[in-house]
Amino acid sequence: MEFVLLILRLLLAGVFGVAGIAKLLDPAGSEKAFSDFGVPRPLARPLGYLLPIAEVVIAISLLFVETSWFGSIAAACLFLVFIGGMLYQMAKGNAPDCHCFGQLHSEPVGLKSVLRNGALLGAAAVLAAFGRDFQGFDLFNSNQNAMQFLIGIAIVGLLATVVFFLKRISEQQALIMRRIELIELVSRQGDAVEREHLAHPNDGLPIGAKFPDFELAAIDGGPTSLKQIRKYQKPVLFLFVSPTCNPCKALVPEFEQWQAALADKVKFVFVSNGTAQDNIEKFSGNASKQILLQKNREVADAAKAQWTPTAILMDATGRIASHAAAGDTAIRQLIEQIKAKDPAREFTFFANGHSNSQTNKIGSEVPQFVLEDIKGRQINTDYFKGKQTLVTFWSPACQHCANMLQDLRKWDETKGEDEPALVLFSDGDKAALEEFGLKSPIILDTGHKFSAGFGMFGTPSAVLVNPDGKIISETATGAPNIWSLVGKQ
Description:
The protein is α/β, with parallel strands linked by helices.
């Protein structure tokens, strides 16, 4: 039994040690996680530092039998707090990012994270139950069995090595991000650019959103619009580049190889800035290219192509079919996916690992249900047939929902017949929902039992359903992404 208790101590020490150090290396992410869980912003920052420090202290205390009992009690208390916070957010229909291991591993709160924390709580409870004087083998008592002592030292050494390499990985990631930022800062004809709230390079519009409308000058001076490009009636790979972007220049030979190899599958369109001559000198290469010129970054910003080079695939219907692929490695990966799949096939989309696959329902039929809305109208699965429908997920207690409500109400009143219908699932009480003042159906869904089948991911969020009753977008979270599904940027 002593050896089992030692393993439990080392397991918990490893979990808390890695989690604490990873969070210390990513204080901004820890602060955001606290804010997402409802902690007031003035408290989120100090807690973003105090929690990982506490986790590291607990990890160290679990290594010594003299302090392990106290560490196990502290660990159990933390797990209870974590589980309580997760269950509270899930009950409200939210799924904030737990940020459990900083930049090393984050995932939306769900049953999986609750069960994982429950298992770890069980391990801490076992240690606490055995009492202060019986916490297993002492790692640092050389009088005990030599083999056990060596095994313990080896495990501690392995944990130290893992932490060291995690730190190296985090440092390398930070260095890569700084290099990408530097490339972007000089990509606007040498001018300095300030960005206070930098997002991840892959954080683009949701798959299924309408590609932003535009009309740009072609490199030969003629105007070209999105409507004209869609006349090719094939998927289009937009490549956002810049004449001052050296990585973009380095990729020109590969751009030309891909353009030739995928000519039957995909149309390549380059979106750049600067003068026509600068772009000719930079990107002319050995093959003709369709290069469109922005005045500044209006199309790139609308498409959330935040860096250069970035590639975004648009399907033949004018909807985004891939996540933003930023940088040469991500673009190569996207190209390989396109080669392996048929981008013209319905419901084919290309993810890069920055989506929540557990809630992605693209291509799925809408769930079977028969419910009444708050006005007593019967709404069932057949409601979605014959028209495109924006299905939104709401909560009266959600401040972001409240901020979006006025625009949603206005759109509900003024949208044309060619625009999607609207259905809103929400928790709360009937009286509060009636105050929304929407003409479209509002379905009371306590605990989001039915909306979860659509891929609901926090509030506000939404998916788009086509006239055949199939979901054609990933879950869009937040007002800007929701509006992008119906082409309102």
